[in-house]
Amino acid sequence: MFKVITVDDEKLIKRSISALIHKNETGFQIVGEANDGEEAMELVSKYHPHLIITDIRMPKLNGLDFIQKVRSVDHQVKFIVISGYDEFIYAQQALRYGVSDFLLKPIKPDLFLSTLDAVYNQIQQEHPSYAERQKRLGLINSSAKEISNLVWMLEEEKLVERISEVDIALQDKGFTTTRTNDFYQDLFTNITTNLENRTSYTLPSHKPFPNETDLLPDHLITHCKKWVHFLKQKRNIGHKANILSATRYIEANFKESTLTLHEVANIVDMSPSYFSMEFKKEMGESYKQFVTKLRIDQAKTLLKNPIYKTYEIADTIGYVDYPHFTKTFKKITGYTPTEYRKRIGVE
After folding, report:
1. CATH 3.40.50.2300 domain extents, the chain
2. CATH 1.10.10.60 fits 241-343, yes or no
3. Which residues contact 72 (CB under 8 A, 6 or more apart)?
4. Could you tell me which CATH number the domain at 2-126 has?
5. Contact 19/11 with Cβ under 8 angstroms?
6. d(CA 304, CA 282)
7. Strand order in the sheet with 101-104
8. pLDDT tens-digit readout, 286-325
9. Rounded distance, CA 130 to CA 261, Å?
10. What is the pLDDT of residues 196-241, one digit of tens each?
């Protein structure tokens, strides 16, 4: 995460900025907030931020003087100026001081987020090593999520395939022995954390990873299989295989708008109420949450293809009511389908 400090004497403005940054995948993290330029200078010395979001008119040290003072000690830090309409001339002057952009109050979320994207890309270009670390972390996080889900679903064959795919990806990237070992250690830690967050069970202990790079994939596979067997025992899978049968049926039919909890319960010969209770106990989420997640994940995939219209995607994944689809999609992702497309660069 790139570090940000905000400087404004209006609490609501700082609160709005904080909410927008933390509720969206911006790549930034607020490490400090200040009411004026003097307070902000202390934060600059303490945190060495990548980005400073500041007002123009503030008590003590104003925005323009503050920017000049920071520039005298740090030429790389980026600035975004938040300006009121009556301060527009000051904002224009700020651009001459190397400010990345200025925005008028009240803050418009879409414009603010697009500005953050532009600044984020600028910083990445100036910090290539950081960009590489971010890509590595992205691969670790996405792989850990997929593998932990496969362990949770007791899909041994699929998790073996996925771990093999990850190992091939690492080889293609030409990772050194040390970096490969570190990657697997971090991946294992993330998988463990994901699983621990989904269950109240204490997972079995594990043996240390070997130093030999070629042994790492099999070592991880062995641990994952051990977890699968452990979960089977804890769930008493012989008596509750119907829940797994239900999840497979849901995964095969979630695109049908007529799919209901009653239908799935009937498939596994359980009453709707008992099925609902057992499903949540075994899966860690309700039937509705499970189906919604499948549909929204499929929608994200389809939205990457500009050929499909958003209302066609809604119908394809089981939403007859388009407004309901839009509302649900935004609730889960924080964006409408159209906004999401713009965020991923699809017009």
Report:
1. 2-126
2. yes
3. none
4. 3.40.50.2300
5. no
6. 32
7. 28-34, 2-7, 51-55, 78-83, 101-104
8. 999 999 999 999 999 999 998 999 999 999 999 999 999 9
9. 46
10. 888 777 787 777 778 788 888 898 999 999 888 888 777 665 456 7
